[in-house]
Amino acid sequence: MTNELTETERLPLRLFAEKAYLDYSMYVVLDRALPHVADGLKPVQRRIVYAMSELGILATAKHRKSALTVGDVIGKFHPHGDTACYEAMVTMAQPFAYRYPLVDGQGNWGSPDDPKSFAAYRYTESRLTPYAQALLSELGQGTVDWLPTFDGSREEPRMLPARTPNILVNGTTGIAVGMATDIPPHNLRELMAACVHLLKHPKATVEELMEFVPGPDYPTGSEIVSDPAELKKIYETGYGQVRARARWERDEDGNIVVTHVPHQVSPTDLQKVIADQIISKKLPLLTDIRDESDHENPTRVVLIVRSNRVDADALMAHLFATTDLEKSHRVNLNMIGLDGRPRVKNLREILVEWLQFRVATVRRRLEHRLAKVNERLHILDALLIAFLNIDEVIRIIRYEENPKAELMRRFELSEIQADAILDLRLRHLQKLEEMKIRGEQAELAAERSNLEELLASEPKLKKLVGQELSEDAKKYGDARRCPIVARPAAQALEAAELLPSEPITVVLSKAGWIRSAKGHGIDAAGLSYKAGDEFLCAVEGRSSQLLILLDNRGRAYSMNPRELPSARSQGEPVTTKLDLQDGASVIGLMLGEAGDKFVLGGGDGYGFVAKLDDLQARNRAGKAAINLELPPFTPLATRDLAGDRLALATAEGRLLVFPVSELPEMAKGKGNKLIALKGEDRIVAAAVLPAGSPLEVLSRKRILTLKRADLEHYVGTRASRGNHLPRGYMQVDGLQALKTAEPKADGGT
User: Fold this and answer.
1) Which of 7, 97, 314, 511 is deepest in the core (most CB within 10 A)?
2) SS3 letters across 237-305
3) Cβ distance 335 to 326 under 8 Å?
4) How many CA atoms lie within 13 A of 42 on its CB side?
5) How far is it, in rounded angstroms, from Cα 655 to Cα 648?
6) What pLDDT is attached to residue 139?
7) What fold, for 247-324?
8) For residues 118 and 324, what is the distance between their CA atoms, to the nearest angstrom?
9) Contacts of 77 (CB under 8 A, 6+ apart)
10) Which residues of 668-706 are buried (b: 16+ CB within 10 A; e: fewer)?
11) Mean of the pLDDT values across residues 157-183?
């Protein structure tokens, strides 16, 4: 026994991997992911349509089980998975996915809410739609090239002889290797009109063609709000984005009714997003959302407004900006051209190339028909000879050994003509009528003359193509579904515009629990607190204002007052919203407009005036506000820097009053000296006094009211020591607070 040597080819791994990947890439690009400009179909779609036509499941036939089609496709033409094949078939049957569906489905074929919710192919039935005939009607007329299938057992068309520019009519999406395609659907009548115009005016520009094709036409009927310049750029370059917006109206009750949503948007998911905004109180202009969709109204979503005074346009603009009621669709007009290469094309290039294909297809159809006419005329000539010499023909057939050769010799017939005579049954000979034969000859001769005239004249051929396009537009086309109305980009409403501004009181406990009560004049100290916890401070303002918190290390933090828990509960720890440093605790609150001013300072006797907006922190960790050696005192709101005065009390019982205007305005820092301190003395209380207001001094449950005349004794310059309070208020750590007293009717004197 001899050993057989097997020759092996050795390649570097780099070259082998490169070739293998390139082969795979070319297969994905050309035979899977990208459509062809001729019929606008990917191979699997083309094979599904062709297989259904071969099975006789046409628009005029009864629905057949989808499993029959899937099995036929993957068994004869497309050796891939049944799931992928069936999903491609489902997409072609969904009226919300295809502008002009190719498959007419019966059963559960998915819904706009969940396109993947279709039933298995063993449960559904299908047939081709009438529009599919626009791709198939000329298939057997010599119009296309044929290729062997994967196993060589039969043939399949390389391309379908599409009578419409299906590449733009239905569009498609696909992801190949290194490239993708996103072709939007268009209106059939508009495309046909553009093609007819291009046949008459071959040099027409994209701008001229856009007079017929102003933009895409999605099946869901949404409003296209892209600027005309954006659409023009898309059709000139083949790239861009189309903005589609839901269509809505107001009903008799003043509510907003959404009737059409953008393409590939789930109405149910949309309702969930809007409902979440309503529940989380981020959309108080709406009270409820209701789905009233049915068979007559596939999309009818009712938004219940709080009152008829709600600005519906502003509300919808907010929803357009924050939900999928407005969606941008990517456009990438990438396709395989007649040269077999993928390329991004503009509108004119696509239509020109498709018209080349269409004119060539019609030429092939006419040539095929001309050949058939000539064949028939050739046979009719023989039949006429047989009729005129019927006795001789019968004799030759009955008595001659080789009737075919004798007929060819006797009457100078071709082999085809002789076969035609011999194929006639004897009983048919008597039915041959000279007038009938001559009549058919005349009709066919006229048709041949017309065909030859069309084939010999390019203008006449194009005119015929244009007429057929117009006829198909009437037969398969419909009105535009998506109105094109240029609108500016939607802007979301600011929180102040969207949410009502309500009076609130923010309450902070010593343990750092925070909450918000509606209204002013709340007895914050009398609220319920956790065991061992008690009231620390409170601030009044409005829910639309800016809330700043200050910790004992001089850092400022921001919180949204709308997000605070209700005062009916015990609140929540500020540490759930803020990242405080170890050992830090919140000791003060500020609530007001961005331009409001507050006096900030530390117990070490330094301070300044800061705008509330300058203290706003952008993250949970806050920002440094005060540089200090001792903890800060409670932030003090100022009203009028020209008239307000600042009162400061120290632990030794000294009180100093001076104009707030003597303090610098800073965004952060240490500031200027407020009061002169000696030894271990420090600031323990402070207050801002409007002009003419008395001052209350609280010390160990004792209250001293200093009227306007009394305060003059403590007025001094900034950074001075101030004067001692009366005996009994001079104990170290005895002072608890300074408070602005309500002036009396006589002016507080």
Assistant:
1) 97
2) HCEEEEEEECEEEECCCCCEEEEECCCCCCHHHHHHHHHHHHHCCCCCCEEEEEECCCCCCCCCEEEEE
3) no
4) 25
5) 6
6) 94
7) Gyrase A; domain 2 (3.30.1360)
8) 23
9) 47, 50, 51, 149, 150, 156
10) bbbbbebbbbeeebbbbbbbbbeeebbbebbbeeeeeeb
11) 94
398: part of which helix (H) or strand (E)?
A: helix 390-399
Q: Which residue from 727, 722, 703 is spatially nearest to 712, judged by alpha carbons?
A: 722
What is the number of other CB atoms lying within 10 angstroms of the CB of residue 619? 10
**In whole angstroms, how far apart are CA 225 and each of 207, 228, 237, 299, 484?**
19, 9, 19, 20, 6
Show the 3-state SS of 160-210. Answer: CCCCCCHHHHCCEEEECCCCEEEECCCCHHHHHHHHHHHHHCCCCCHHHHC
CATH superfamily ID and name for 365-462: Topoisomerase, domain 3 (1.10.268.10)
Q: How far apart are CA 190 and CA 195, in angstroms?
A: 9
> For the chain, what are the domain ranges?
43-161, 247-324, 365-462, 496-740
Q: Cα separation of 41 and 682, whole Å?
A: 84
Q: How far apart are CA 242 and CA 318, in angstroms?
A: 19
Write out 76-134 in H/E/C secondary structure: HHCCCCHHHHHHHHHHHHCCCCCCCCCEEEECCCCCCCCCCCCCCCCCCEEEECHHHHH
Cβ atoms 347, 215 nearer than 8 A: no
Residue 658 has pLDDT above 70, yes or no: yes
Task: Supply the pLDDT for residue 691.
Answer: 78
Structure-block tokens of residue 195: 């093609």
**Whether the predicted pLDDT of 495 surpasses 70:** no
Average pLDDT over residues 537-543: 90
The token pair that represents 361 in the structure block: 């297809």
Q: What is the pLDDT of residues 47-63, one digit of tens each?
A: 999 999 999 999 999 99
The residue assigned the tokens 């696509």 is 350
Q: What is each CA distance from 386 to 85, 154, 254, 407, 408, in whole angstroms?
A: 55, 39, 85, 10, 12
pTM given for the model = 0.74
Two tokens at 600?
A: 């900030």
715, 503, 689: which is closest to 599 by C-alpha?
689
Give per-residue pLDDT as tens, 218-256: 999 999 999 999 999 999 999 999 999 999 999 888 899
* CATH of the domain spanning 496-740: 2.120.10.90
Tally: H helices and E strands in the chain? 20, 35
Q: How far apart are CA 102 and CA 94, in angstroms?
A: 9
Identity at 99, one-letter amino acid code: R
Task: Sort strands 326-332 and 334-336 into parallel, antiparallel or unpaired.
Answer: unpaired
Quick one: CA torsion of 239, 243, 244, 250, rounded to 10 degrees?
-170
CA distance 118 to 356: 39
Q: CA angle, 353 as apex, 351 and 359 as ends, to 5°?
A: 95
Pick the CATH number of 43-161 from 3.40.30.10, 3.40.630.40, 3.90.870.10, 3.90.199.10: 3.90.199.10
Active site (annotated) includes residue 123: yes
* Active-site position among 50, 86, 123, 399: 123
The number of residues in the chain equals 749
Question: Is the Cβ–Cβ distance between 28 and 177 less than 8 Å?
Answer: yes
Detail the DSSP E strand segments found in 553-603.
555-559, 572-573, 586-592, 597-601
